[in-house]
Amino acid sequence: MSKVSAPLGVAVLTVSDTRTRETDKSGDYLADALQEAGHRLVDRKIAKDDIYEQRAIVSSWIADPAVQAVLVTGGTGFTGRDSTPEALGVLFDKQVDGFGELFRQLSYEEIGTATIQSRALAGFANHTVIFCLPGSTGACRTGWTRIIASQLDADFRPCNFVAHLTGEKA
């Protein structure tokens, strides 16, 4: 893959009650993939499946002018502790409805009807795009390679998110 012409600052959040930096394969994948594309990894954290911890971390990133995109992995399912959509959806100024729809369509090709158990979502908050993916490395790979990478590439046509991310943050 060629390097992007307009590198963005990207932060990665893994939502998990059990993962550590040593066992966070999905976070590793996203951090490596975005850097291989030519973007800058600004920050990376692991948060418990706690609504307020997730909100606090992502809120600090959307207020940071160095961060234009946030990639979140985990917490999008239906178990009792899965809370990423509830935690982060309220931060969105605008939801990117097509992201979850397209992610589930592409995921269906890989895992069949189990894809309906994914509550993947995305949205914009303060000139920052936030993508929330399931916690599996395969889901992160699907989301990155088949949707996110091109939308964070200023040269992707007919359109991409980069122009929406270069505005002044409040």
Automatic annotation (TrEMBL):
Pathway linked to the protein: Cofactor biosynthesis; molybdopterin biosynthesis
Record InterPro entries: MoaB, MoaB/Mog-like_dom_sf, MoaB/Mog_dom, MoaB_proteobac
GO MF entries: GTP binding
Chain ranges of the MoaB/Mog domain: 11-155
GO CC annotations, alphabetized: cytosol
Keywords associated with the record: GTP-binding, Molybdenum cofactor biosynthesis, Nucleotide-binding
Segments crossing the lipid bilayer: none
SUPFAM superfamilies: Molybdenum cofactor biosynthesis proteins (SSF53218)
One GO biological process term: Mo-molybdopterin cofactor biosynthetic process
Family, as annotated: Belongs to the MoaB/Mog family.
Described function: May be involved in the biosynthesis of molybdopterin. Can bind GTP and has low GTPase activity. Can bind MPT, but has no MPT adenylyl transferase activity.
Protein name listed in UniProt: Molybdenum cofactor biosynthesis protein B
